[in-house]
Design a protein that fits this description.
Chain A is mainly alpha-helical. Chain A is built from 20 helices and 2 strands. The longest helix of chain A has 32 residues. Chain A is globular, with a radius of gyration of 21 Å. In chain A, 57% of the residues are buried. Chain B has a domain of 62 residues. Chain B has 4 helices and 2 strands, in the order H-E-E-H-H-H. Chain B has a two-stranded antiparallel ribbon. The chains are: A mainly alpha, B mainly alpha. Chain A: It catalyses: a ubiquinone + NADH + 5 H(+)(in) = a ubiquinol + NAD(+) + 4 H(+)(out).
Chain lengths: 459, 150
């Protein structure tokens, strides 16, 4: 594990000690090499996880998330290069340091064995994200957004701390690898009900669950592009990952405790998809689309069947890449028009045809077109929820239709039609932007050829 | 033909900034008058109609100074090197070598082994008349239960 942590830590002195002209080149180069080494984690066994040490382990669930985390850092650096070009050198280096710190905490979160260590790193990821949102966001609403983001997550996770310490006292250890074998069925009682809620609420807020999702549109919209990318692609998945780990300890009361949350998620995914159809702000649309997709993941994790777990893992990775790509596309619009209103920069297909091709691919994967991994994830979730309860097929089907509707709405509004005269002189797409989009899309397409690595531990 | 060449030469001369004509002369065969441009040497005037409704004054057009800009940096040399680094390390190394690595992963999660082992066990059990699968996971005679408490 040190082979990932130490190079990531060393990216910090690399940023601060590089020459002015070389900071972006050096950091992008080395973060790409770190992402190459992350593929070594794919040496997974069928009967055990990769146990690096007492502190770190990585199994088929954390491996794809780790690879996604380490792949995303160079992409975030490339995406931020333009809007930071006017900042002072120290500010640029500070921004990159925040991204590297976030990467470090995320790596340690996903590989933590000890659940308190997981909790500390889980909370630690909030700090660099908050700094990125509030310092480098573009509008005044970023302060409010940072507040919502920080306090929603903190309020949800404080009970988790209490619950984890209680488990440590009763079970004797919080080492996840040991807990797997020591776990006893949890009898039904009021205190265990609250224990279940305490364990799960942190991750529900993070995912986010429909009723607790208010922080997400604010944070995603106000964050700069790197912030939006990391929020949508990774930080949401922290919630899913945490839920999949902690549900191990919470059986069998999950069977009935999960009902309110499954209902909220099933209803919420339709609601948030419908809200997407009414959005004028492009980033806000993508943010609500994230809530909708994550609601599917919540349902999948709570019904706890093998296929639903496979679907949840696949959907997390697929959504990470797709959502991050959509935010990059929205940012390429924003950098030209300085507005997030969708209809303000419409008809872009005639002006920027290659970028329109990326928009098309991103929208198609967002609406889960076969044979992308988005479809594999959604299909597994739909199938497993159907076998759990036949009626859910109506809601799932409705959600897929509305997802297709708003993805196509976003595509058609931004790309098709006559372009407005005031964007006649927007700059052609940069190589940087096209490279960024293809670096998002190619792993997504390659994974559809070999999805077994993202199907999680129950494959 | 000559007229076309002449027009091209005139256009070339105009874009190069050279005056198309240096003295004023009138054609004897037609009523054409060729005169040096009054705009020669003067900068083009600001467009009176703004294309952008709300132009950002600090918007930097990277293509202005460097028409071959890749979008990374103002300095063309740094820009080109950044592009090369991204493409080489991003695509040629990580995507290509990475996908090769993933494609040739040996028996991910022992799936192929599991299939072979299952087939081997089925063959053995069929050959020896043993049931293919027992409903007991563990041998019940080896489980020691605690004494029944009354």
């Amino acid at each position: 594990m040190l082979k990932y942590i130490i190079p990531t830590m060393m990216l910090m002195p690399l940023t601060w000690l590089s020459k002015n002209s070389m900071i972006w080149i050096n950091t992008t180069l080395h973060s790409l090499l770190i992402s190459l080494t992350s593929l070594l984690l794919l040496n997974q066994f069928g009967d055990n996880s990769l146990n690096f040490s007492l502190t770190f382990f990585s199994d088929s669930l954390s491996t794809p998330l780790l690879i996604l985390t380490m792949w995303l850092l160079p992409l975030m650096l490339m995406a931020s290069q333009h809007h930071l070009s006017k900042e002072s050198l120290a500010r640029k280096k500070l921004f990159i340091s925040m991204l590297i710190l976030l990467q470090l905490f995320l790596i340690m979160t996903f590989t933590a064995t000890e659940l308190i260590f997981f909790y500390i790193m889980f909370e630690a990821t909030l700090v660099p994200t908050l700094i990125i949102i509030t310092r480098w966001g573009n509008q005044t609403e970023r302060l409010n957004a940072g507040l919502y983001f920080l306090f929603y997550t903190l309020a949800g996770s404080l009970p988790l701390l209490v619950a984890l310490i209680y488990i440590q006292n009763t079970m004797g250890s919080l080492n996840f690898l040991i807990l797997q074998y020591w776990v006893q069925p949890m009898p039904n009682s009021w205190s265990n009900t609250f224990m279940w809620l305490a364990c799960m609420m942190a991750f529900m807020v993070k995912m986010p669950l429909y009723g607790l999702h208010l922080w997400l549109p604010k944070a995603h919209v106000e964050a700069p592009i790197a912030g939006s990318m990391v929020l949508a692609a990774i930080l949401l998945k922290l919630g899913g990952y945490g839920m999949m780990r902690i549900t191990l300890l919470l059986n069998p009361i999950t069977d009935f405790m999960a009902y309110p949350f499954i209902m909220l998620s099933l209803w919420g995914m339709i609601m948030t998809s419908s809200i997407c159809l009414r959005q004028t702000d492009l980033k806000s649309l993508i943010a609500y689309s994230s809530v909708s997709h994550m609601a599917l993941v919540i349902v999948a994790i709570l019904i706890q069947t093998p296929w639903s777990y496979m679907g949840a893992t696949a959907l997390m990775i697929a959504h990470g890449l797709t959502s991050s790509m959509l935010f990059c596309l929205a940012n390429s619009n924003y950098e030209r028009v300085h507005s997030r209103t969708m209809i303000l920069a419409r008809g872009l297909q005639t002006l920027l045809p290659l970028m329109a091709a990326w928009w098309l691919l991103a929208s198609l994967t967002n609406l889960a077109l076969p044979p992308s991994i988005n479809l594999i994830g959604e299909l597994f979730v739909v199938m497993s929820t159907f076998s759990w309860s036949n009626i859910t097929i109506i809601l799932m089907g409705l959600n897929m239709v509305i997802t297709a509707l708003y993805s196509l709405y976003m595509l058609i509004t931004t790309q098709r039609g006559k372009h407005t005269h005031h964007i006649n002189n927007i700059l052609p797409s940069f190589t940087r932007e096209n490279a960024l989009m293809s670096l998002h899309m190619l792993p997504l397409l390659l994974l559809s050829l070999n999805p077994k690595i993202i199907l999680g531990p129950l494959y | 033909m000559l007229g076309l060449c002449g027009r091209r030469l005139l256009a070339v001369a105009a874009t190069r900034g050279l005056p198309a004509a240096s003295v004023r002369w009138e054609s004897s065969s037609s009523r054409a008058v060729i005169a040096p441009s009054t705009l020669a040497g003067k900068r083009p005037s600001e467009p009176t109609l703004r294309w952008q409704e709300d132009p950002e004054p600090e918007d930097e057009n990277l293509y202005e100074k460097n028409p071959d800009s890749h979008g990374y940096d103002k300095d063309p040399a740094v820009d080109v090197w950044n592009m090369r680094v991204v493409f080489f390390f991003g695509f040629s190394i990580v995507l290509v070598l990475g996908s090769t690595f993933v494609a040739y992963l040996p028996d991910y999660r022992m799936q192929e082994w599991a299939r072979r082992e299952a087939e081997r066990l089925v063959k053995y059990r069929e050959a020896h008349g043993l049931p293919l699968m027992e409903s007991n996971c563990f041998d019940p005679s080896k489980i020691q239960l605690p004494e029944d408490e009354d």
